[in-house]
Amino acid sequence: MAVRSWVVSANDPATDFPLQNLPYGVFRHEHSTRIGVAIGDQILDLRACATDGLLRPIASEWVGACTSEVLNQFMALGPPAWSALRRQLTVLLADPQVQSRVEPLLVPMRAAEMHLPAQIGDYTDFYASIHHATRVGKLFRPDNPLLPNYKYVPIGYHGRASSIVVSGREIIRPSGQTKSPTATEPVFGLSRSLDYELEVGMFVGPGNPLGQPIPIDQAEQHIFGLCLVNDWSARDIQSWEYQPLGPFLAKNFATTISPWIIPMDALAPYRVPAAPRPEGDPSPLAYLKSDDSTHTVIDLKLEVYLQSEKMRKSEIKPVQLSTGNLRDLYWSLAQLFTHHASNGCNLRPGDLLATGTISGPEQGSEGCLLEMKHRAEPIKLPTGETRAFLEDGDMVSFRGYCQAPGLPRVGFGECTGTINPPNSSPV
Predict the structure, then answer these.
(1) What is the pTM of this model?
(2) Catalytic residue of the set 115, 131, 132, 339
(3) Residue 208's pLDDT is what?
């Protein structure tokens, strides 16, 4: 039987944050910003735990990192520190004998304001879903959707860390250069083809010195945890600017992440065998091939919801647009991580690596609106509205969770953003 917490809401089967999860985030409450851990509908204040001596069983250096205003210092400590704190937090939140000391250190989630969990120095976005790459490729190259390098090298680009925002922040519709196929010259103006991209992000832990690659079998020791990522994309700007150097202004105006980082230890029970590569596909090069014959991936279910402004005014709940799964990626998290460092690139604590759009093989598993253009019918909302791309007032929400027989639901919370026109509201 799963261990239960004395925090009643953590035992609700529908919660994203049972005792078996314990994700990390940064919150603000009563004019103070600090690191917290989600448990049910509460946040455990780690600085308060340290001050009250509740973290003494772990090393003092590790305790000190818990009193910071961001997670970078704790991320840098590596798996021994992460596991030790997790064990201690589990005791504090499960043992009724310490409840009277710990309960006053809980903050209701509704009373807290979530911030970015780390100071993100660098952000890299990959293109790891072959289903996404194939669907998008068919729109532009029907006879040759995948470029020759796709099955050999994990494709990625360096994004803009400064425009990463936490869930709930409004997204301002960007402007840029666009050129219609029939026009002779481009124009500058608001993007009319605004899209979302359903992704999962990895936060870097210890990282590596400049010039020192990370072997594939050590890669996951450097992954602190996972979050949800929405890499907002202006498709009309993207189609004009992306050649020859790839994404630029169509991507860097905003990226939304969920506020809670789910530890890899919490996701371990939900690992499943990785699917073999399709017959005829090349085997990964040696540096991307693990010696572990039981190579696994995480069975993480992902959902996309949309609610228009008209739906909100009519009190109509968001509608689900698609569902996907992290296990459907062509390249694993470890392969993405190892490839990024394979040339000696130094990854640093708090850096963010994202998977790229996650899509499955069947209709209904598309990770962005652009992919849905192959459908026979446009997206229809309960209000009678239709969508090809996002309109002002649209709220997009991502949800992610792991669930298996005999195991509690381990969720990611929400990754949400609402599209606003320029200067419509304070940012």
Answers:
(1) 0.96
(2) 132
(3) 98
